Amino acid sequence: MARNDGLVKQVRGLLEHEPRVNLHRCPIKIAVADDVVILEGEVEGIAAKKLALERAGSIEGVRGVVDRLRIRPGERRGDGAIRDSLCAYLLRQPELQTCALRAAAKGRSETLRDVLGEGSGAIEVAVDDGVIALEGTVISLSHKRLAGVLAWWTPGCRDVVNSLAVVPAEEDNDDEVVDALRLVLALDPFVHAEQITARSRNYVVTLEGSVRSDEERRRAEFDAWALFAVDDVVNRIDVRA
Questions:
Q1: What is the band of 1 on the pLDDT scale with cuts at 50, 70, 90?
Q2: Which domains occur in the chain, in start order?
Q3: pTM, rounded to two decimals
């Protein structure tokens, strides 16, 4: 019991000293069982979620972290509305046009797009209490990351579980992360991608350049955080009117 209490105190201390995790506005419940930390609550954004999980897992003696954190959405929506919006995003993306798409609801799977012959995989979308689950296969890590970002863009989304398998398998690396981010920024209608440069080292993304507003600066950072496997984002983008 004393060891568990000590680990809880260590985790709380790290989270309190992380400026992107605000425990006062969004309290996180911290528990420990068999040296596994359990984090539960609603946080302000993807950065807070990923950093809270990373900080908890960095403590010596912690064997794992159970993620029960959810994002506080800007708009509360029902699962059906979230699912329909995401499927519309996926259907419109040219990069995914040869990928089959299915939507799961009430124990049934509806085919929204079928692909004859050898396609680019098949994505199945399900939503439960605002949590989007992506399953199936895609042909590249960039496709996996793109689908995940589209899920994070969906109004009402509280979390994304991206379980898409890449077939054939690819080895991930920082160059792949940067390639996917360039694609996402180019697709984002709220970002002028040509004004932003990005690099990645050990899955820590650094953004540089200049944009016209604080909102555009925040949006570019959000896109980077939304990429599968990105651990941290350093935002050095300037705002110039």
A1: low
A2: 2-71 (3.30.1340.30), 79-166 (no CATH), 174-239 (3.30.1340)
A3: 0.94
